[in-house]
C-alpha cells in the first residue's frame, strides 16, 4: 500500500496528491482495492460456506467419489480444502517430512464446519477418512512449499537471520522459527533433492488447476477420460505433450470402450483396468484418475473418525488372515499392490512428501 500521510492528523500534506474531485478515489484507496482483489477468491469461498451453514442450520455435508478414489468432490470440497490450507498455515509449524508425523494434538485441534459425524456413520467410513487424510497430506505439502518459497525469497541459507526475521503473513514467530530450522536440516535437504529428481521424471503433469480429476467429473458431469483431457491440455485446447495426446486417444481403441466410458456408466472396475493398462500402474495412484484407496477397504467397516476415541485394531489371527485370503477382491488388490511395488523400484513413484 502506498505510504500516504492523512491531512490534518499530524502530516503537512506537502507530498499528498491533489484531492480527488467528486466521488474519486485517492491512490491509497486504489492500492487497498488491488490488495482486496487478490483475496477475492478466498473471501468468496468463505462467504459461500457461511451461507451454506446458515441454510443447513448446521455443519455442511461433504460429497465423495465412492466409485474409484474416495476423494471429497464438488463445491463443499472446495470450501473444505481452503479451510484445511488456511488453518494449517496459521497454526502449524512445517517441521515434519509429512503430515503423518504431525502430532495428534495439532490434528485434533482443527475445528471444521463440516459434518464429520455423518462420515463416521457411513458404511465406507474408513475409505472416506483415507480420502480426507489425502487432502490433509496434500495441503500440508502445498503450505510447506509456500513457506519454503518465503524462506528462499529472503535469501534462505545465505542469510538465515534475514529469513527468520521475515515471518510470512499468517504464521506465528514460533512456528516460523521451527520451520526455518527444519529447512536447514540435512534430512530435509536430502529428501527435497530426491523428490525434485523424481518430479523431473514425471510423464504426466495435471494442468487442471486445484480441482481433482474426480471433482471435475462431478462438477462438469464429464467422464474420467474427459477429466484427463482437461488436466493435460493448454489454454488453447492443445495437449501439452504428444505423449499425453496419444494416451488420451489410446483408451478409445480398447474393446467395449463405449460401455466403460459412456455417460452414466457403472463399469468402474473396467474403467480403472483400462487406465492402468494404458498408463501403467503406480503404488498409490491411478495415473490420470487420482489416488488409490488403501487396502483398508477390505477390513471391517468400523471406523475411527476425528471425534471418536482410537479403537484397538483387529488381531492378526490365523482365522482373520484366512478370511482375507478367501476374498477374491483382496487377492486381486494385493496382486496389483505387489506388482506396483516392483515397478516403483525402477521408477519414480514414491512421493516423499518433500518440496
TrEMBL record:
Chain spans, region Disordered: 1-51
Amino acid composition bias (Basic and acidic residues), ranges on this chain: 27-39
Designated name of the protein: Transposase, Ptta/En/Spm, plant
Amino acid at each position: 500500500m502506498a505510504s500516504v500521510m492523512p491531512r490534518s492528523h499530524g502530516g503537512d500534506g506537502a507530498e499528498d496528491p491533489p484531492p480527488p474531485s467528486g466521488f474519486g478515489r485517492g491512490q491509497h484507496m486504489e492500492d487497498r482495492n488491488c490488495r482486496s482483489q487478490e483475496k477475492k477468491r478466498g473471501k468468496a469461498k468463505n462467504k459461500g460456506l457461511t451461507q451454506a451453514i446458515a441454510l443447513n442450520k448446521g455443519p455442511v455435508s461433504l460429497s465423495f467419489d465412492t466409485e474409484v478414489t474416495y476423494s471429497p468432490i464438488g463445491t463443499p470440497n472446495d470450501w473444505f480444502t481452503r479451510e484445511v490450507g488456511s488453518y494449517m498455515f496459521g497454526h502449524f509449524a512445517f517441521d515434519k517430512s509429512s503430515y503423518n508425523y504431525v502430532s495428534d494434538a495439532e490434528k485434533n485441534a482443527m475445528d471444521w464446519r463440516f459434518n464429520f459425524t455423518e462420515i463416521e456413520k457411513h458404511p465406507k467410513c474408513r475409505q472416506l477418512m483415507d480420502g480426507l487424510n489425502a487432502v490433509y497430506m496434500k495441503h500440508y505439502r502445498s503450505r510447506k512449499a509456500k513457506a519454503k518459497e518465503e524462506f528462499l525469497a529472503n535469501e534462505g541459507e545465505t542469510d538465515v537471520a534475514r529469513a527468520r526475521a521475515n515471518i510470512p503473513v499468517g504464521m506465528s514467530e514460533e512456528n516460523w522459527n521451527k520451520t526455518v530450522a527444519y529447512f536447514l536440516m540435512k534430512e530435509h535437504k536430502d529428501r527435497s533433492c530426491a523428490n525434485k529428481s523424481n518430479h523431473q521424471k514425471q510423464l504426466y503433469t495435471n494442468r487442471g488447476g486445484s480441482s481433482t480429476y474426480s471433482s471435475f467429473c462431478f462438477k462438469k458431469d464429464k467422464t474420467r477420460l474427459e477429466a484427463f483431457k482437461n488436466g493435460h491440455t493448454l489454454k488453447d485446447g492443445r495437449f501439452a505433450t504428444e505423449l499425453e495426446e496419444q494416451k488420451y486417444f489410446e483408451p478409445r481403441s480398447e474393446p467395449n470402450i463405449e460401455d466403460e466410458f459412456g455417460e452414466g456408466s457403472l463399469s468402474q472396475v473396467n474403467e480403472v483396468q483400462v487406465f492402468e493398462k494404458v498408463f501403467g500402474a503406480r503404488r498409490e495412484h491411478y495415473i490420470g484418475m487420482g489416488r488409490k484407496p488403501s487396502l483398508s477397504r477390505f477390513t471391517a467397516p468400523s471406523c475411527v473418525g476425528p471425534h471418536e476415541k482410537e479403537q484397538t485394531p483387529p488381531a492378526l489371527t490365523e482365522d482373520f488372515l484366512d478370511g482375507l485370503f478367501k476374498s477374491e477382491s483382496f487377492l486381486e488388490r494385493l496382486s496389483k499392490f505387489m506388482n506396483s511395488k516392483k515397478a516403483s523400484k525402477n521408477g519414480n513413484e514414491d512421493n516423499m512428501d518433500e518440496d
